[in-house]
Amino acid sequence: DTSLSEVNSFSPSVPKSPSSTINQYKFEDGPELRDLFITVDDPESHITAIETFITYRVVTKTTRGEFDSSEYEVRRRYQDFLWLKSKLEEAHPTLIIPPLPEKFIMKGMVERFSDEFIETRRKALHKFLNRIADHPTLTFNEDFKIFLTAQAWELSSHKKQGPGLLSRMGQTVRAVASSVRGAVKNRPETFTEMNNYMETFSQKINLLDKIAHRIYKEERDYFNEMKEYGPIHTLWSASEEDIADCLKGIASCIDHCCKATEKRMAGLSQHLLPILHEYVLYCEILMGVLKRRDQIQGELDSKVDALANKKTEKDPFSEEIGRLEDKVERANNALKADWDRWKQNMQWDMRSSFTNVAENNLRYYEECLATWESFLASQSVDLHVEEDSEDRP
């Protein structure tokens, strides 16, 4: 189940349209089991003397008993989402926390604070919260509940209750100490296979991400040139009376193809680029989770070695080793379950995304082909009419 070939496999039994049968099945199967629904919408710009930032409305509807109300509406900025992600990582170091979009997007794609940028980020933040809501453990995290329900001043107050500087420094020192111990001696083979899988997956998905962005850029350049290409034929037709209709027909075909190209670009930017880049970010997250699991394992190994070399006072060491063994087992079980869930979601997302792109490409080429075939048919009719008129006495 860990071979990378599964990522690229395509089963003929998968319905052709990811927006039809598959999604309908998933939608119909889900709502009965879900009890938490979250929507991120209504972005607003805020300009102060110090900074400019965007807030988003987060609407939560739930039937859970631990919530005081069935519906909440709060406004959150990007910094608040970052805080939530860090709290989830702190509370669940060996679970796979969904990625957030980077603070700054790739240069040359869209301008910061443009409508396109804000909409792209809104969708990513919406997906981030709903992935957490669908997670069997993260969804019940107390900080997640506070994020969804607390007003701005309440959230600010809660943020200040985080660990102090000395506590954070201690955590950093322990993490650094664990990371420099070298390779883990007793790492289970399962996690070695996960690590190898992620190294290969990371290479492939990063390459796909770069190629997809290059394709999008070339498509955009082609679209911009095509917008200039059609009007030239229209202008030309004004000075060529004999072929004016032909030139106008070509201009019309180019205009249709230009609109079709714009639709295809929208499909790439909405259904392919975000998915690929999300899993580029997932690679960093998963490698971090595997490293944190290894740190827990390394701490246990060091205590076992210390106990083996110690001749007296073994009881306190034995008790601590037992505690660490339980911690390692919990970490292993949590990561295994999350790994299976992540892999299933990844394969679903990739298959849906690539199928969607394939369908968009088919529609694009069929539309362009039909446009030019219609033009050729009209020219063929005109030629026959001219030949008939010349043959008459």
From TrEMBL:
Residues 34-155 form the PX domain. SMART domains: PX (SM00312). GO terms for biological process: autophagy of mitochondrion; endocytic recycling; piecemeal microautophagy of the nucleus; protein transport; reticulophagy. CDD domains: BAR_SNX7 (cd07666), PX_SNX7 (cd07284). It comes from the Eukaryota. Residues 9-20 have a biased composition (Low complexity). SUPFAM superfamilies: BAR/IMD domain-like (SSF103657), PX domain (SSF64268). Residues 1-22 are annotated as: Disordered. Gene3D superfamilies: Arfaptin homology (AH) domain/BAR domain (1.20.1270.60), Phox-like domain (3.30.1520.10). Pfam families: PX. GO terms for molecular function: phosphatidylinositol binding. InterPro entries: AH/BAR_dom_sf, BAR_SNX7, PX_dom, PX_dom_sf, PX_SNX7. One of its GO terms (cellular component) is phagophore assembly site. Keywords: Protein transport, Transport. Belongs to the sorting nexin family. This is SNX7 protein. It comes from Lanius ludovicianus. The lineage of its organism: Eukaryota, Metazoa, Chordata, Craniata, Vertebrata.
